[in-house]
Amino acid sequence: MKKYVGIFGLSLLLMACNGNEENSSATEKSGIVVATTGQIADAVKEISGDALTVTTLMGPGVDPHLYKATQGDIEKLDKAEVIFYNGLHLEGQLQDIFEQMAEKKTVVAAAEILDKGKLLDDANDTTLHDPHVWFDIDLWKEIVDGIGDSLIEEYPEHKELFEKNEASFLAELEQLKSFAQERVTEIPADQRILVTAHDAFNYFGDSLGFKVSGLQGLSTESEYGVKDVENMVNYLVDNNIKAIFVESSVSDKAMNAVIEGAKKKSHSVVIGGELFSDAMGAEGTHEGTYIGMYKHNINTIVDSLK
Question: Do domains 12-179 and 188-305 have the same CATH topology?
Fold first, then answer.
C-alpha cells in the first residue's frame, strides 16, 4: 500500500537539530518509531510487538488540534527512523515539522491512505475532511493495514511477525465492531442522539446510527459564542435530550454553560460521562488502548442514553 507523506512549508524550528542527521541516516536501524497520537501509536505497537521502540508524542488529555511541539519533541522526531501521524490536518501545528523531517526519513500520514470518497467533509469548508477517522472501525482497519505495510517496508526482517500481529489485531477490531453494534441496540432508535463538546464523533455516528451534534466544529481551534450555546440549548429542549457528554481533551466549560442555559428553560440536562475523543486514556490502563478507549465510549454512551 502506498505511503502518504505530508507536504507542507519548511520549519525553522528544526534547524538546531540538523546536526543529528548523520545518526538518522545510519544504515543499521535500531527500530525507533515515533507516533503523534495515542490511537496511531497503539496500532504501531499492536503490529510491532516487542520488535520496535515506539514513542507517543501526545499523551492523555492532549488536544492534537492545538498541540505545539516542544524542543524535546523535536529531538524525539529527529532520532526516529519512522514517524507516523494521523494527517487530514489533525495535527495542524506540526505540519511544517513533518515536511522538514520527510526530507531525511520516512514520514507517514496514516489516515491519508483512505479513499477520499470514504471521508466526511468539513461542513464549513468542503476542501477539508473530518480527521477523526478512528471512530469508524472499518476505516480504522484500513489504516491499521496501511501502517502494517509501512512497517514491513521499513523493517522487512520482521515481516512475518508484523503480519501475524496485524492479523490478530484486525480480528480483535472485528470483534469490537460486533460488540459496539450489539450494545447500541439497547438504545431506542429515537434516543440515539449524541451531543458532545466538538464534532469528533461524526464517523462514530455514521457507523452506528447516531445523530451527532457538537458545540464546536471539527477542530477545537474554532471558537464558540453565545449564539452557539443558545442554539445547542434549543436543540436539547426541542429533542428532549437529557444527557450530554464532555471529552477528556476538551474543557468542560462550554458544556456546563449549555447545561445552565437549559436549566433556565426548565429543561434538566446532565453530563452523561466523559468520552475519549482526540486523546486516549493513560498508558498502562485499559482506556490507554484503542480497543479499551472505544469500549469505554460505547459503554458510557449506552448506559447514559438507554
Answer: yes
